[in-house]
Structure to design on (848 residues):
């Protein structure tokens, strides 16, 4: 990539540090930002900022950079100490950096009791200097591991000013444990890394995580881990960070290989158990101290069981504790299990069983039926359908279960269960005679709501995870129907990852049923979802399979859908001839079968392809035809998309005010219908038109708004385009360093996802920016952009690259070569009919 620009820093230790860092980069052969970032395990933005001189980077990052470049770490540490004594270290920049440290700890446990020795052990493990940076709280389920960890974390929070992260790994849960890759993503996002900037590979995520936490004083609580393998990649390796893990496993390998200190948690002592009952029941314990001890014993002195028993006692304030103790003693079979003590999990099950025995019959039914719900949370209306009762009755039952500590109301109208309770409820539900009818009610409720959903409703945002979970366990026909009716709402609200899971369930369901037509339809929906997340090869594969099936079955509608999907993927990959062929074939089918909205879709797609090929008049004809069709059939989504695409076409033709008008109308319509991706794209196109009109401050503002939305919804293709547009606007404003930063990022993302037109355009813009900065790298960047544009047939960016290379030739004294390139660029632009042709002719005239 060549030498990075050296920062303008005053003489002194800071200047010496940055000069030596740049000299080391030189001696290493000027590796690229991308190569250094891959070696260090962070984004190239972080590397760029470290070299920029804006602030002294943190030592953890410097150490990794020096090691990657083959330097002397010890010598650089001395220089870093001298420099950092004169300047404040800067936080490492990450896309979407958080403005404050994470404070994720759950609320402290009410009436926390005992555990003095264990709290002291955790204090010792975290005492400076931290010889031990990992502590593991282990013990059986229900013994209070999470309560201890959260209580200690609140006490120690002040020791970790850079934040406290909390993550439930669901190691012992009816659901699948959180995989390390997903856990790393959650932690990185909590630490300020934009979700779209998180790498896909596990080892790259782990490396970025270690880089992000280096030098920070963080507490990381990893709750409910299943195994060492689940947490190994989540260990930061920085002595300033403290990790606190809870698990039912002994985590022996964590102790042996990583030096963790293990804090084993047993049941409460007799005194602690009675003290906990006293805190929960007050004077009643002092009135019957012996019965309180007996009650604790019946509960196996498990904190969770004691709390449930206390609720039972509180529900009968006039009854003596001896009554409850006798009731528990009479539960012969279950009490035998509780007294045996061979299996603590069985003891917990026994406690749950007698707790449920004291519920009203309707509430007991509700508790058991909740075990049939596959999601993490349930709202009252869904519970009512599952129970087969009115919402008022469901709310009353859920309130009774919450009072008995069998569910928690995590927010108004939403309830969740402890994982052991969920497992126990599922066991109880398995033997119910009405199990099938309850599941059918649940599935019917979700399907009826999904069929009638307005994408703007909060219901979709609240329930999208549950919908995916339900589809995974529902009968095949239900999964297929749910996929069909949620495809458009999920797409509009940018639930792309959920869409992938939903449509994958539908593909499996169709295959189970032997429904070839349903399989083709589900594959096309899955292909679209893959397209949204930038997985172009996988999308191509699904659409090709769908095409084969639809031809086999004679399903013309799905054949057109497959052709359309292949056309869009081909366009994204810069294969414009293939895209035109697929979309033209799809258009013919749509017309044959009388699919008017589908016809509009293909006209819209063909307009996009012809714009990329430089045939703007044809593109305009296709897009206007699509607009008329969409308006005729009242398809507001289609209309918004065409308006969005007309803007860039008109902009290429030099009709900037018309382009702005179409983009403003598209933006307003996308907001009305709740199309979040469309809103982001319209804002990007609006900003591009503003830039061409010279409204540069407005352009930067709107590009930043669009970029924030792309990052929020996780649309990486849009992020690349947004950064490209922002970089162009910043260059026009003369903010060349900021422009270079955005453009490099845009190119990296576009290359990763295969978005060739954005990669070419951003590369030309970067070349121009580097040329203006006097960077030697400019020519290589522009040549690469030129070659890509020629290969794909993108005459517009081909012309831009030629004009920029001509400027470099002219500045170097190669007048003949410059003239040849300018003439070639002028010919391309004039053939396209774009205003750049006149500008190049004027440049030629001025040069000679």
């Amino acid at each position: 990539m060549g030498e990075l620009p050296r920062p303008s820093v005053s003489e002194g230790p800071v200047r010496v540090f940055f000069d030596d860092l740049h000299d080391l980069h030189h001696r290493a052969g000027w590796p690229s930002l991308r190569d250094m970032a891959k070696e260090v395990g962070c984004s190239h933005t972080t590397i760029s900022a470290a070299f920029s001189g804006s602030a002294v980077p943190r030592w953890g990052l410097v150490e990794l950079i020096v090691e990657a470049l083959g330097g002397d770490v010890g010598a650089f540490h001395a220089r870093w100490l001298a420099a950092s004594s004169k300047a404040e270290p800067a936080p490492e920049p990450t896309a979407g950096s958080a403005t404050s440290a994470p404070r994720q700890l759950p609320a402290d446990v009410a009436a926390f009791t005992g555990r003095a020795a264990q709290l002291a052990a955790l204090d010792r493990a975290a005492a400076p200097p931290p010889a031990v940076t990992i502590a593991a709280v282990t013990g059986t389920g229900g013994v209070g591991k999470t309560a201890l960890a959260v209580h200690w974390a609140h006490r120690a929070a002040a020791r970790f000013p850079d934040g406290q992260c909390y993550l439930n790994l669901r190691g012992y849960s009816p659901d699948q444990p959180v995989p390390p890759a997903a856990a790393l993503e959650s932690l990185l996002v909590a630490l300020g890394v934009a979700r779209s900037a998180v790498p896909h590979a596990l080892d790259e995520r782990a490396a970025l995580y270690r880089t992000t936490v280096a030098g920070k004083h963080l507490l990381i609580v990893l709750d409910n881990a299943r195994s060492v393998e689940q947490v190994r990649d989540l260990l930061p390796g920085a002595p300033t960070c403290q990790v606190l893990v809870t698990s039912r496993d002994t985590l022996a390998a964590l102790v042996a290989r990583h030096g963790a200190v293990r804090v084993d948690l047993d049941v409460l002592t007799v005194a602690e158990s009675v003290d906990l009952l006293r805190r929960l029941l007050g004077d009643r314990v002092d009135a019957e101290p012996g019965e309180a001890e007996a009650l604790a014993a019946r509960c196996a002195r498990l904190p969770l069981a004691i709390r449930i028993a206390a609720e039972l006692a509180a529900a009968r304030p006039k009854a003596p504790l001896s009554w409850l103790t006798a009731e528990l003693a009479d539960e012969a079979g279950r009490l035998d299990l509780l007294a045996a003590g061979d299996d603590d999990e069985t003891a917990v099950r026994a406690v749950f069983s007698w707790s449920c025995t004291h519920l009203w019959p309707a509430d007991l039914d509700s508790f058991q039926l909740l075990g049939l719900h596959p999601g993490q949370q349930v709202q009252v209306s869904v519970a009512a359908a599952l129970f087969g009762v009115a919402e008022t009755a469901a709310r009353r039952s859920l309130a009774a279960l919450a009072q008995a500590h069998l569910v928690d109301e995590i927010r108004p109208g939403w309830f969740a269960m402890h994982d052991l309770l969920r497992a126990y409820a599922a066991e109880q539900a398995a033997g119910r005679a009405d199990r099938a009818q309850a599941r059918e009610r649940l599935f019917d409720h979700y399907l009826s709501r999904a069929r009638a959903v307005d994408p703007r409703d909060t219901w979709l945002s609240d329930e999208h995870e549950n919908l995916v979970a339900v589809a995974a366990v529902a009968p095949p026909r239900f999964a297929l129907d749910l996929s069909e009716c949620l495809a458009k709402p999920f797409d509009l609200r940018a639930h792309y990852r959920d869409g992938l899971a939903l449509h994958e369930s539908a593909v499996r369901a169709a295959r189970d049923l032997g429904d070839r037509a349903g399989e083709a339809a589900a594959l096309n929906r899955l292909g679209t979802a893959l397209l949204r997340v930038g997985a172009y090869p996988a999308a191509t594969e699904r659409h090709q399979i769908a095409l084969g099936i639809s031809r086999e079955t004679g399903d013309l509608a799905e054949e057109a859908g497959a052709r359309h999907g292949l056309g869009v993927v081909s366009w994204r990959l810069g294969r414009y001839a293939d895209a035109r062929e697929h979309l033209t074939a799809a258009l013919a089918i749509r017309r044959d079968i009388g699919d008017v909205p589908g016809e509009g879709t293909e006209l819209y797609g063909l307009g996009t392809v012809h714009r990329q090929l430089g045939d703007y008049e044809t593109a305009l004809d296709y897009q206007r035809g699509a607009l008329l069709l969409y308006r005729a059939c009242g398809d507001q989504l289609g209309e918004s998309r065409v308006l969005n695409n007309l803007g860039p076409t008109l902009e290429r033709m030099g009709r900037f005010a018309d382009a702005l008008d179409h983009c403003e109308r598209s933006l307003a319509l996308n907001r009305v219908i709740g199309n979040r991706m469309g809103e982001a794209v319209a804002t990007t196109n609006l900003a591009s038109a503003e830039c061409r009109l010279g409204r540069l401050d407005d352009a930067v503002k709107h590009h930043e708004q669009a970029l924030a939305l792309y990052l929020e919804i996780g649309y990486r293709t849009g992020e690349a385009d947004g950064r490209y547009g922002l970089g162009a606007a910043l260059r026009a404003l003369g903010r060349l360093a900021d422009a270079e930063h955005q453009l490099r990022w845009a190119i990296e993302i576009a290359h990763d996802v295969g978005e060739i037109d954005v990669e070419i355009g951003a590369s030309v813009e970067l070349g121009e920016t580097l040329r203006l900065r006097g960077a030697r790298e400019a020519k290589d960047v522009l040549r690469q952009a030129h070659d890509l544009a020629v290969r794909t047939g993108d005459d517009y960016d081909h012309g831009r690259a030629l004009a920029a290379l001509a400027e470099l030739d002219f500045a170097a004294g190669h007048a003949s070569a410059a003239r040849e390139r300018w003439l070639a660029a002028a010919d391309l632009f004039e053939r396209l009919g774009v205003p750049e042709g006149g500008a190049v002719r004027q440049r030629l005239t001025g040069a000679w």
Summary: Residues 435-452 form the longest helix (18 residues).
